[in-house]
Structure formats: C-alpha cells, structure tokens
Amino acid sequence: MNAPSHLPAAVLWDMDGTIVDTEPLWIGGEYELAAQHDAVWTEEDALSLVGSDLREAAVYIKRRIGSDMEPEEITAWLGNKVAVGLREKQDWRPGAVELITALREAGVPQALVTMSYDYIAEPVVEILGFDAVVTGDAVTHGKPHPEPYLRAAELLGVQAADCVAIEDSRTGAASANAAGCHVVAVPHAVNVPEAPRRTIITSLTHLTVEDLGRLAAL
Length: 218
Description:
This protein is an alpha/beta fold. It has helices at 23-36, 43-48, 54-65, 71-88, 96-105, 118-128, 147-156, 170-179, 209-216, and strands spanning 10-13, 110-113, 132-134, 163-167, 182-185, 198-200. The protein folds into 2 domains: 10-21 and 91-216, 3-Layer(aba) Sandwich (Rossmann fold); 23-88, DNA polymerase, domain 1 (Orthogonal Bundle), CATH 1.10.150. The protein contains 9 helices and 6 strands. The protein has a 6-stranded parallel beta sheet with strand order 3-2-1-4-5-6, sandwiched between helices. The radius of gyration is 17 Å and the shape is globular.
C-alpha cells in the first residue's frame, strides 16, 4: 500500500534508547567487563559510545581497559549479555510502540536501523515487526556514516530524503541526516545538538503520524 502524500514515504527507527531502553544493559556490561580487567570505566566512557558502531566501540573498550580480548570477542561478550536481557524484558520507551502501531495502521512503511547485531535485535523485531531491518553486522560502515539509513531506504524502495528517522543519539542523528532524512531526535542517555533537518523533542508520547508527515515535507 502506498502511503498518502501527506505522510512520510517511510519512517526509519533506531532501536537502542529510541524504541527500547537497552542502554542500562550495554553500560552495565561495560562496567562489568572493565571490573573483570581491574580497569576503571567511567560514565564519560560509557556515554561516548552511545549509538556507536559496535566494532568501533569494542576497539575503544579494548584499548581503554587493556584487554587481551579481540574486538570481536568483546562485541560478542557484550552483545550476548544485552541479547539475553532484552529477550527477558523489553523496557519500551514512552510512546514508541504506540507510534509504530499507528504508522502501521496508516500504511506507512517502517524499517529498523540499529547498530545492534541481528541476534540482539531479534526479540524487538519479532514483537513489533518491520518492513525492513538493517543491523550493525549487515553494513560495512556503521553510524555516523549514512550507509545504514541509505540501505534501509533502498530496501523499502524509497528515497531517504522523503523519510523521517527517529533517533536518540548524536551519532545516530548524524547518520540519518547525512543520508538525507529529516531526523526526529528524542535525547535519552546523551544530548543531541540542533542541526538542519532535525527536530528535537522530549518524548514520542504525543507525536502523531501526521506530525511526521509535516516534518518529512520540510
């Protein structure tokens, strides 16, 4: 079904911190891994990685805590902890599930665009359903590179410039803007700076399908 002209061509969703609050799982795992290496891990360290490509984050963690683990091993260790926690409980962000449901009922295509790997995102995909899914292990360049959002638009058969992306981090917002999307930023763990084609809000709770259509036209 083609969406009416007053609606966005598609809505592209970040996952971690935007749809579901996984940041405590990621950050808790980072602190635990650092403790196992008798290394100091700070809030600044944790927040600097929010929204990042997991491979790049693992390189940073390895260097920061002085680990003998390879970056791939660090990614797998943290990813498995988050995947288990996410399958046990989904801490949905306010308004996210309701907006996803409203968009589906309006016939607007939706994609999940996350730097989490496929097996981590699986529970969310199973519960919510998306027309396309782009995960961190399916792209060559992660956020803030535009590739993830360009790939999502391609899979949906639309132009990224006609899409709205919903993000919670500066890294993700930069990725979506670089792809040409209008970004709705809902800061959670970190602040997101203002930028062209970017709307910053405090919650998704009162955001409507029509609101997204107006933003896509800006």
